[in-house]
Amino acid sequence: MFKRFILYQIRWQLSTSILWLVVKNLGVGIYSTIIANLIGGSIFFWIDKFIFTSEAVEMWHFRERGYCDDCQKETSLWRLVLVPNYDRRQSEPRFFCIECSKRRTDALRDKGIKIRGRSR
Ligand SMILES: [Zn+2]
């Protein structure tokens, strides 16, 4: 999370320099600011996309108690929501016990998806 914050700070400093360059060349005014933001937007669309989908991002959901969607055991449950090349934010949530979750993440790792592990 901290790494992502630093990246984000650098990204804003970059956008400051674009604004400064455009304003310096075209003068201070609403139109040069709009142009600067158009330039910035075209660049930072990709940079932001990278920052928020890079390896820094791994999202798990956790449930204190519930039934595993696989083996039906009642225990604490995990759900992998987001890692690079795996995005289940829009999917029907399915929660798994630690064993089933491990089996599933191992299967995903075999497919080449990079998962570091649960954050707690
Ligand atoms: Zn299970």
Description:
With 120 residues, the chain is of the alpha+beta class. The chain contains 3 helices and 3 strands. The protein starts with a helix and ends in a 10-residue tail after the last helix. The mean pLDDT is 87. Bound molecules: zinc ion.
Helix and strand topology:
Blueprint: H1 2-26, H2 30-53, E1 59-67, E2 74-83, E3 86-87, H3 98-110
Antiparallel strand pairs: 1-2, 2-3
Helix pairs in contact: 1-2
Structural class: alpha+beta
Rounded mean pLDDT is: 87
Small molecules held by this entry: zinc ion
Looking at the chains present, what oligomeric state does this protein adopt? Answer: single chain
Determine Rg (CA atoms, Å): 21 Å
What count of helical segments does DSSP give?
3
Return residue spans where pLDDT drops below 50 for at least 5 consecutive residues. none
Strand tally: 3
Helix content: 40-55%
Largest sheet: 3 strands, antiparallel
Kindly list the characteristics that best describe this protein.
binds zinc ion; alpha+beta; 3 helices; 120 residues; 18% strand; 3-stranded antiparallel beta sheet
Quick overview of this protein structure:
The protein contains three helices and three strands. It has 120 residues and is an alpha+beta fold.
